Structure formats: structure tokens, C-alpha cells
Amino acid sequence: MKNIKFGLAALLFSGFFTSCIEHEVIPPPVDEVDLECYFEGFISGIPFKLTQNVDGIFGIANKAQNILPPPDFSSERYFFKMMTYQNSRAVQIGHGSVFWDGVVDSSPSVTQFNNFHMNTLTPNFSDNALAGFEVRYTDANGTEWYTREASTNFQEVEFSEIKQESDVTGNYSMFNAVFDCYVYHQDPVTLSWDSLRIQSTEMRGWFKR
User: Of these four, 127, 171, 178, 192, which has the most CB atoms within 10 Å of its CB?
Assistant: First the structure.
């Protein structure tokens, strides 16, 4: 009889102890946008490639806003850059502008952002990407070269594989861009212009709202 009572007490104690254990709560997985990027092409006829996660290379998206009071509309430009802290060589492209009422919202709506990138696949070249497309290339010496709107040399760009995605960090427009253009640098002493040709180029990356 004693054994039965002892066993029953042990069972009750075990059940009480088990009920006091806090079970680990595993949060559901969070979907994250797969931010993939690369760049490859020829600069002055020499192959040049930037590969994500190789030699510290990474991609970064930025934007620039110009907020204006009514009745003018505000504007927003989007930039994507591939670079590394291990050396100065980098490639950046810019694409703009989206216009919206800066009094109503702090930035263009998701619909405006998506429509702009889906419907502007072959933009004109524009200085500082104010009204179109711009390329900036930083060479091994840290010198920055950039496209010019008024260039008489051949230049073209086409966006494709546009894919809109969102996660907890924001809204993205994934893209693939091919472009052929000349980039320029003005000598600060002689004020003469030098140029480099960028051709057979493909760049994958993203813009962020």
C-alpha cells in the first residue's frame, strides 16, 4: 500500500513539475527578399567584373529626394552601387525621377514606385539621374567617371526582369540592366575632358523605396 501511495505521489509531483516547464516558443520564419547582385562588362576594352561576396564586394541601394512645397511636386531618384572597402573601384547607376505630392506623403507610394520601374525600361541618359539614367564608375585611383546627358557618343540602356518584392525591411524593385555608354572625367587643371567606354555590360541589383 505504501508503494502505491508513494508511486501516486511521485506521479503527481512529476506532472506538477512538467506543467511548470516553459515551452520554447519558436517564431514563424520571416520571409526576406533575396538581394542578389553582380556586374560584368568591358571598360576601355578590358574585362571588369564585380561579384557579390568576393573580395568584400557588396551592393547598396540609396535614394535622393527633392521636397518642394505645393503647387510643385516633389521628386525621388534611385541609385544602386556595387563596391568594396578593399579598393576604390565601384560602379553605380542612377534612375529617376518619380514625382509625387510631398505634402501628402513623405515618399512615393508603393504603386508609384512599382509603376515607375515597371514602365521605364529604356530611359534617356540624364545628368545626376534627374530625368533618366546615369552611370558612375570609380577607377583604381579613386577617380570618378560619369555619363553626360549631352554626350554625342553612343549610349543606351535597357532594364529587364523587373520584379517587385517586399519584406520587413522595405519595398524593392529587382532588375537586370544592360548598358553601353561613355563615362567622362574633367581634368581639374587643364579642364580638358577624358572618356572611357563601358560596353557589353550587364548589372543585376535592386532599387529600394
Answer: 171
